[in-house]
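Board notes (copied after class):
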Amino acid sequence: MRLPIRFSSSSANVSFFALVAAFGGFVFGLDAANISGALRFVSAEFELDSIQQGTLVGCALLGVILALFFTGSLCEKFGRARVLLAIGFTYSLSSLMSAFAVSYEMLLVGRFIGGVAFASITVSAMYIGEIAPAHQRGKFVSINQFMIGLGLLCAFVINYFLVKSLSTSTWLTNDNIWRVMLGAELFANAIWIALILCIPESPRWLAKKGRDNEALFVFDIIDSGEKAAVLLEDVKRSLTNNSELDTFSQLKTLFSPGLRFVVFIAVAYAFVQGATGMNAVLFFAPMVFEQIGMSVEDTFMQTISTGAVGLAATLVAIGFVEKLGRRTLTIAGLLLVVVAHGSTFLGFKQASYEFNEAAMAELTTHFEQNALAVSSLAPFAGKSFDSDVELKTELSKHFDKKTLPLVSGAIIEKTIIGVNAPLVLFGIFAFLAAFNLSIGPIMWVIFSEIFPNKVRSVALPFAALVQTVSSWSIQQFFPWQLDNMGVANIFLLYAGIGLFGLIVMYLYLPETKGKTIEALELELTNQNALGAK
């Protein structure tokens, strides 16, 4: 048995183990922010259209979907900690392939492999849910979201300074900046792999495998004294009442009438969390801010603000998840999601674009400074467009795929009129706060709590699969939606999904705080009416 690092108090031990397990979220955050910053330059390098851009970002989630079919079985066979270690090495392989990609196809493969590693979020939630005491479980599972937010913020800061250095650096160019962005996470991968070697296996998994002495040893580290023996006894009793099932039997049990209410809650929550648009803002942040009329450098500066807001909101969630409870935070968060997206919709609704004399003069200067053909602006002189869809359709006729990603931001910045930037910015930041305060971290808390031990190793990956497919649809089609639906209508759609989630969660979501996994199992599997709370 691997001997973990041990501190003087059980609370410190749990905190350390949870932080290490959740460090995969930090790497995920780095990866998500890095591809959002790199996308503009990758698109120019490989001359990508909007569908290819969406595929490049979305293929990572296709990797997650594949991984989730095997995550439960692997966790059950090898243990949570070993699977986390394997995921750390998978992240490293993805970073290397992505940074040194010589073609769009090679970059897709690297991103896909990284997507397989994104299963770390599910495994971390599973591990933390099984190692943290009931009265602290919500706080520690929420650390997953905090680490994602911290990774995002770090990457946004790095990306901003890289973009800011483009004009003065002797070695950094539009052709290689994306390689630096995508390769930077290798350092974090190495740290995470080293830390995973310092944590114990899940005591509930050890007990399930009949390794009671090892399980008791870990329980003693995380909740010392007589409580350790009581915890082990509770787990053994639960396992005795629920005989060990193979993967197929677990799936059959998961979809049995007795767990219908649990599955309903999980699927509804997973769909809403993924489809309210977080991945659009997360992976395409510079694109979103570009629509307001910001310069390239300013869009990267704003991404730092989004990262800071998300991180601060997650800290609030960690502080209140055990006080206010999962249900209250979820409902309050979804209400704010609806308000935020409604604000963004109204802010963009009246936007139009005009190539007047002042705009043409500024664009001519910009093109000259960046060695772009000024003659390509001639067809736009004096023209105006009533929507971003009309503008982008016309731009695609006059600029090739290599040039368009590098000029679209400047053109929108100089020609946009009528947009209510304060409403848009309020909407974006309020949504980030709402998501990270509620449905972002709380979803993983609920998933770690509501599934019985007998189906846990397949139930969490299944719920994560629903969330991943939902998120993938947002990532895959956001660039295409920008070109064909317009930014205002996209956020109106997200508001509608948030409203649906608000209604469902208000009617059906139960409170789970302060209850052991075994107690929740008894409560929720006896839930026969969907309307009961």
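Comment from the instructor: The mean pLDDT is 85. The first helix runs from residue 10 to 46.
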